[in-house]
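agent: user wants the full assembly modeled, not chains individually. Plan: 1) parse entity lines 2) check alphabet per entity 3) run joint structure prediction 4) return tokens. Steps 1-2 passed, two entities, 754 residues total. Proceeding.
--- entities ---
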Amino acid sequence: MADTLHDPALKHHFDDLGQQHEAATLGMWVFLATEMLFFGGLFTAYMLYRIWYPETFGAASRTLDLTLGTVNTIVLITSSLTMALAVHAAAAGKRRKLMMFLGITMVLGAVFLAIKGIEYYQKFEEHHIPGLGFHFEGAAPERANLFFSLYFAMTGLHALHMIIGLGVMTVMLVMAARGRFSARWNTPIEISGLYWHFVDIIWIFLFPLLYLVDRHR
Amino acid sequence: MDTPALPRTHYLNAEYGLKSWLLTTDHKRIGLLFLGAISLFFILGGIFAGLIRLELLTPPGDLVSDDTYNKLFTMHGIVMIFMFLIPSIPAVMGNFFVPIMIGARDLAFPRLNLLSWYVFMAGGLFTLYAIVTGGVDTGWTFYTPFSTMSSHSNVMTAAIGIFIMGFSSILNGLNFIVTIHTMRAPGMTWFRMPLFLWAMYATSLINVLGTPVLAVTLFAVALERAFHMGIFDPAYGGDPILFQHLFWFYSHPAVYIMILPAMGVVSELVAAFSRKTIFGYRFVAFSSLAIAVFGFLVWGHHMFVAGMSVYAAMIFSVLSFLVAVPSAVKVFNWTATLYKGSISYQTPMLYAFGFIGLFTVGGLTGLFLASLGVDVHVTDTYFVVAHFHYIMVGGAIMGYLGGIHYWWPKITGRMYPDIWGRVAAVVIFLGFNLTFFPQFVLGYMGMPRRYHAYPPEFQALNVLSTAGASVMGIGYLIPVIYLVWSLKHGAIAGNNPWGAKGLEWTIPSPPPTFNFDKTPVVTEPAYAYETRETKRG
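--- prediction returned ---
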């Protein structure tokens, strides 16, 4: 196709934009598979010790702030919605809408991190951070230490992914502002969206495992 | 007959200067960057191996202290596995030839490809730093609780280095998977791909799905050392055995990261030097995928004596036997390919023969170790050491050298003296067997691994082994000399010195920067060699 040959977005080693799009999308999916296994190790450890020590893990889980956790879950799911709307706007070639939804997504992501920070601070005040004068009222405090280690490792890694996501969104916003995307080519927005949804899904698993697992008592 | 000459411009002389190499996105140059780096690491790992063998020449621990010896075998393992074998064939020959063999101008993500080299070097330098500032003494396996609680060596730095290098494998695997899926030239269907590409694809799957688990495991070890998080610490209710499960979930498949690419190379060599299509192409292709998949289900066989339920052990044992099936499919099909082929015994083919024989020995002794009873008897003895060196050195490095010798004319445009190549291949083969075969016997007699002293009755076999290591060392030195010599003085290779099939042999040697002037169209299966039958029509 003559018109795609000189497209500025087309890299020299691809035949056309379709091939380039397909490669980028598949690349992101493969990367997400890697990410899944990366988190998988910690999920495995958590499940194992949760099965071994249900009492302590339940007691430790109940000290987490359910309200803030729930609010954060809602915030994150909403950000996934606005991300999906951003991808939709990009596909329709609507630049202002795209930038607006990217902006809202970023604000929601920042709100999530802020609330997470408040929760971390609460844990700090309660001396629930392993390694920082850890103290836990109740039986088997050393196993509670294990729970909180996993809690901070897993939510910390998740938060790190959120921060990276915010960085990616900033780049996307700048690119969108410079008019780099069109209805014909918006692959970066699409694959950034895939990443964002993935990070969201990780939380969807973290929330019940860490916060809800023993609330029925 | 035309007199061959080097092409006027190619990827090596398209640009000059350090910057043109350090900022290149050409997959061929990146392959050479990896070749340079891992060759240095190989020498380093070889020096550690030499010191180990020198210590074991005599029964008492007289050359180095026990602590130093612990560090030597640890660093030998870390350097050889993470810094040489894991990247070896994929990062060098895979980078160079995956795009060419499918008829593409580059990998799907050239900049990620360059990044993967920098990530590798960053991790490598971290690990080197850990080595020169005192070393690590945990064994390359980093077993807890020793690595998290007792060891006073540079565990943290080495773990961070390996963690970083892991991302290089992931990026490499991701790039290959996407490239093979989306960038095949017109007519290059999945079942027309050379088997090297199937092997690369299977390897990449393991890289992408296994490496992150190692990464997160080392991350946990680092957290454990820094903050005592307790995941692997019984005092907190943690379980040190969990570390072994997570570690081997990557590190057993990692064995296939090393051997599958070598199998891919051997498939190319056997077809090219017997002038026949591979017998049972589809079986060989799918056996690569089968090895990758089964490889994820057998990690428990490293832990039969570590405290595991007898039922789990039985299942892991049976699954481990299953891996032998696709491996044997390959060996039988290569052998069947040779049947009625017009075989020529040039250097690369000698390595292929070496691979087939040594891999078979390594694989069959693997079955001994998969059997619960025998494994309990020989766990942590030299039997295990001999077994995995037959796979990693006899298999992976033979494949690596075979590939280097096969594609050297394409990479450099020049031939090496074949007679010296053959001499080196034979010397390496003999030296290898002299080094490691005695270790099977030693292990079966009960000599444990990882000790710097041993009872005098084991000395004779240890002397043989050390002598073999010296022979092997000389064998590795010869190719270094003649390959470097060939860069300037070797005969001009021309496009296709072996008369082999495959897109890489249709373009000039060395190839131009963008490989193909125009995208090739593939009209025949891989290895469409003329045989007496096809000639007759």
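agent: reporting back. The longest helix of chain A spans residues 141-177. The interface with chain B takes residues 11-15, 19, 22-23, 26-27, 30-31, 33-35, 37-42, 44-45, 48-49, 52-53, 56, 130-131, 140, 142-143, 145-146, 149-150, 153 of chain A (CB under 8 Å).
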